[in-house]
Design a protein that fits this description.
Layout: E1 4-8, H1 13-24, E2 28-33, E3 42-44, H2 50-62, E4 68-71, H3 86-114, E5 117-122, H4 135-155, E6 160-167, H5 173-186, H6 190-198, H7 210-220, E7 232-235
Parallel strand pairs: 1-2, 1-4, 2-3, 4-5, 5-6, 6-7
Helix pairs in contact: 1-7, 2-3, 3-4, 5-6
């Protein structure tokens, strides 16, 4: 019987690439996103709202449960700390930290009972380092690493692993929007934004592709990765080698 993976933020970018990679290799994939998606294995929900998270979890459990949980949904808001809106802070922490907590809480009992499970959280280079003007994003991604480690310790004896994928900038609609905005505000070409602003600390000056993150996620879901848990797996192009 095919295993089931649930992917949040599955409509585009990293989430879409992960959902497609799992589906192509025989997984049944449940997709959750703020945007409506076609098909009976898709569910529309605003995961910054705990009640919506619970609705999504109930829906997935009603479809037979989840073997692999991929917490990917997120967004960005950039502002100086003293100007950062409280509502943006709360929405970002709700979506990128509280929702993964609630979904893990919902699906972990079934994974333990079956003696097998994978929780794959999509973090960021900002799970390890900080950038100015991203207080909520950095806080959420740091917190997600903490949640991942606690989950790994509690779930390990039951055959369940929990890991965090920590990529640098990935070529997604979210990042492409940031590139265009910075190019306009700084008066420089977009390629210069990528090389000299976004990737200045990195050894390899390029954006990651969503498919690269999907490949690592698929590996973490395999039996070959059964000894890896509680880790932040960097895909940072050498950023943290300094």
């Amino acid at each position: 019987m095919a295993r089931t993976a649930l992917v949040t933020g599955a409509a585009s970018g990293i989430g879409r690439a992960i959902a497609e990679a799992f589906e192509e290799t025989g997984f049944r994939v449940l997709r959750v996103d703020l945007k409506p998606l076609p098909g009976e294995d898709a569910f529309q929900a605003d995961l910054s709202d705990p009640e919506e998270v619970r609705r999504a979890a109930k829906w997935a459990l009603g479809r037979g449960g989840v073997d692999v949980l991929v917490n990917n949904a997120g967004f960005q808001h950039v502002a100086p700390l003293e100007e950062f809106p409280l509502e943006a802070w709360q929405k970002m922490l709700g979506l990128m930290l509280t929702a993964p907590f609630l979904l893990t809480k919902a699906f972990l009992p079934g994974m333990k009972e079956r003696g097998w499970g994978r929780i794959i959280n999509i973090g960021s280079i900002h799970s390890a380092v900080a950038s100015p003007y991203k207080a909520a994003y950095v806080s959420a991604k740091h917190g997600l690493f903490g949640l991942t480690k606690v989950t790994a310790l509690e779930a390990g004896p039951f055959g369940v692993t929990a890991n965090l994928i920590c990529p640098a900038y990935v070529r997604t609609p979210l990042v492409e929007g940031q590139i265009a905005d910075q190019a306009k505000s700084l008066g420089i070409p977009e390629e210069e934004v990528i090389e000299k602003v976004m990737l200045e600390p990195a050894a390899i000056k390029r954006l990651l592709e969503p498919s690269e993150v999907a490949e690592l996620a698929f590996f973490l879901a395999s039996d070959a990765a059964r000894s890896i848990t509680g880790a932040c797996l960097p895909m940072d192009l050498g950023w943290t080698a300094r």
